[in-house]
Amino acid sequence: MIALRPDAVLLVEDDVMVRAIFHEWLRQDWFVGPPAVIIREAGSLQEAIAWIEQDAMIGLVVLDMRLTDTAGLEGLDRLLPIIQAHHTPPIPIILVSGYIRGEDSQVALVHGADDVLEKTGGNPAIRAGLIEKCQRSWLAYQGRKRAYEVLRA
Questions:
Q1: In the list 37, 114, 123, 124, which could disulfide-bond 92, CB 3.0-4.6 Å?
Q2: pLDDT value at position 98?
């Protein structure tokens, strides 16, 4: 059976206001109704790694590209092996940035991001992009997970 949303999402953002806004948008626009979805929050890459290592329910990560303890694709490059060690197949990562443009998004996808959200265009566009990219990445992950289970059987 395909789950339409994960049990838990990890928001990794060092700006408390942005994290709170993303939390609310997810709660209001994607996680309406039962079952309840847990939204974990991390303000640094180290906190994100700790969550991934201790909470197997996390099914999707929204990762800011510029954190206090990492910048650029370094955070993605450091987090992906941790995710791969704890989740088979690896759970989706949505990379979020106010600085990434054009072909840099393609580089992020090559590095292992499932999608890239540019924090440009104003709040309505960012909000719609966040929800759409999370939903699309989650459903694609469900397909990968199902294929993995069939191959293992």
A1: 114
A2: 86
Domains and CATH numbers, the chain: 8-152 (3.40.50.2300)
Task: Give the mean model confidence (pLDDT) for residues 132-141.
Answer: 92
Confidence of residue 1 (pLDDT cuts 50, 70, 90): low
Provide, for the chain, the percentages of residues in helix, strand and coil under a 3-state DSSP scheme, each rounded to the nearest 5: 50, 20, 30
Mean pLDDT of the chain: 90
Question: Helix, strand, or coil here: 51?
Answer: helix
CA 147/CA 143 separation, integer angstroms: 6
What type of residue is 121? Answer: G
Backbone angles phi, psi at 74, to 5 degrees: -60, -45
**Residues 11, 3 contacting (CB under 8 angstroms):** no
**CA torsion angle for 142, 43, 107, 118 (degrees, to 10)?**
90
